[in-house]
Amino acid sequence: xxxxxxxxxxxxxxxxxxxxxxxxxxxxVHYQEHNAIIEIPSGTIIGGxxxxxxxxxxxxxxxxxxxxxxxxxxxxxxxxxxFKIDPLK
Length: 89
Hints:
Elements: E1 3-7, E2 10-13, E3 26-31, E4 34-39, E5 45-48, H1 52-77
Antiparallel strand pairs: 1-2, 2-3, 3-4, 4-5
């Protein structure tokens, strides 16, 4: 479960071969005891929950890095190494 970015206590991960469980491109977001699965194209939470202020930060990060996230997703589902993505500053 590679970590692709970390900022403000938020950890963003993308799992290899995860398209069997969730067919949509997505990321796994962890913040303290909270976890969420977020669809990349729309930014919709498809599982779990985050505190609203942290969700807004993740939404902004996804908007900025959507193309990089999609590229990483393609690599991940093909079992290839993925790239780190810059944190939100």
